[in-house]
């Protein structure tokens, strides 16, 4: 059974029916936009659905297939393509969405494909000295973003999607909205970059003012906020902390807006800096988050507190950092030394 990795239970009945005159992938996009799925999720799901159709040589429409065909496709991913467990789960979720919400013919819970092996790899972490070497080869906005991630433990997209109202300078807090799993949380605002971030936001406000003067200034708003608050999209507090250099056309609404920066810019900057720092490790933006967690544990932070800061649903996820943190073994007593000490004491007592 693979019911444990099927998407979360949807108690409310789905009523939206896509336009059946559209092509299948257009129906998928229409349905995902109705339910406010992220654009990145939309692209990923469409890719998996297309791969599913191609797997059967484009000869059969998904409505003419079902659980057994899905099971065979997922087994192929695990046994032949050797995908990871998370990748197999992603493919399953895309097909569950297709059948449940687009074709309105939900898959039964008896799907039991060959499971992809779940491998647990210890995270790559950097010491404080190594982080300093990486930051030495970065500058500008990319450096500020990297420092925020290392100093707060945010994920890449959580940092990219920060809004001006999410930064609380008075209390040195950052509010992470709709993080992984759609959860909100509070984490640190490192005091050492507080002033620099304040100056950066002042420049963002000036940029927003110029956009407004030119008849633009709107930003994408999540959920139904745009409908509920008509002018919110133009308000300063809703603007991204890290906006793109130029305005672009929103692929969904067709409106010209200023979106946030692309994540690829920071990813490339971190990799380039790690290469210049001559680190013999695979360093990514997420390595900074791993390093934050490990360094916090090494300085005595309670693991439950760290769990909240990182936004982990289960403390077991946080515990993986205990395997890579530096441990002071000098204070530990070796059992063999204790044995010999015991023998020595007995001899003295005689």
UniProtKB/TrEMBL annotation:
Q: Which PROSITE patterns match?
A: CB, TYR_RECOMBINASE
Question: Which superkingdom?
Answer: Bacteria
UniProt keyword annotations, A-Z: DNA integration, DNA-binding
MF GO annotations: DNA binding
Q: Which InterPro entries match?
A: CB (IPR044068), Integrase_catalytic (IPR002104), Integrase_integron-type (IPR011946), Integrase_SAM-like_N (IPR004107), Tyrosine_recombinase_XerCD (IPR050090)
Whether DNA-binding counts among this entry's keywords is: yes
GO BP annotation list: DNA integration; DNA recombination
Looking at the record, the residues that make up the Core-binding (CB) domain are 26-103
* Family matches, as Pfam families: Phage_int_SAM_4, Phage_integrase
User: Where is the Tyr recombinase domain positioned along the sequence?
Assistant: 121-334
Q: What's the protein here called?
A: Integron integrase
Species for this entry: Desulfomarina profundi
Lineage of the species this protein comes from: Bacteria, Pseudomonadati, Thermodesulfobacteriota, Desulfobulbia, Desulfobulbales
């Amino acid at each position: 059974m693979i019911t444990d990795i099927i998407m979360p239970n949807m108690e409310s009945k789905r009523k939206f029916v896509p336009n059946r005159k559209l092509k299948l992938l257009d129906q998928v996009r229409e349905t995902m936009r109705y339910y406010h799925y992220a654009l990145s999720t939309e692209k990923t799901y469409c890719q998996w659905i297309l791969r599913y159709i191609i797997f059967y040589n484009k000869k059969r429409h998904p409505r003419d297939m079902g659980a057994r065909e899905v099971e065979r496709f997922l087994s192929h991913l695990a046994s032949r393509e050797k995908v990871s467990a998370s990748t197999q789960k992603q493919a399953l979720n895309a097909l569950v969405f297709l059948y449940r919400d687009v074709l309105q013919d939900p898959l039964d819970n008896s799907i039991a494909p060959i499971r992809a092996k779940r491998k647990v790899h210890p995270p790559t972490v950097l010491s404080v000295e190594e982080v300093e070497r990486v930051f030495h080869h970065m500058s500008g906005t990319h450096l500020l973003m990297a420092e925020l991630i290392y100093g707060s433990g945010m994920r890449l997209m959580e940092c990219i999607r920060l809004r001006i109202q999410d930064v609380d300078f008075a209390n040195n807090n950052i509010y992470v909205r709709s993080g992984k799993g759609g959860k909100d949380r509070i984490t640190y605002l490192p005091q050492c970059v507080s002033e620099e971030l304040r100056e950066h936001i002042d420049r963002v406000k000036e940029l927003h003012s110029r956009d407004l003067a030119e008849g633009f200034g709107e930003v994408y708003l999540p959920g139904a906020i745009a409908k509920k608050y008509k002018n919110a999209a133009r308000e300063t507090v809703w603007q991204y902390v890290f906006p793109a250099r130029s305005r672009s056309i929103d692929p969904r609404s067709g409106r010209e807006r200023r979106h946030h920066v692309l994540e690829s810019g920071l990813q490339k900057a971190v990799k380039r800096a790690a290469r210049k720092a001559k680190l013999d490790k695979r360093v990514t933006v997420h390595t900074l988050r791993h390093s934050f967690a490990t360094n916090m544990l090494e300085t005595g932070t309670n693991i439950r507190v760290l769990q909240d800061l990182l936004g982990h649903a289960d403390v077991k996820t946080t515990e993986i950092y205990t395997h890579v943190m530096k441990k002071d073994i000098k204070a530990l007593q070796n059992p063999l030394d204790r044995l010999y000490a015991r023998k020595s004491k007995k001899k003295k007592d005689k």
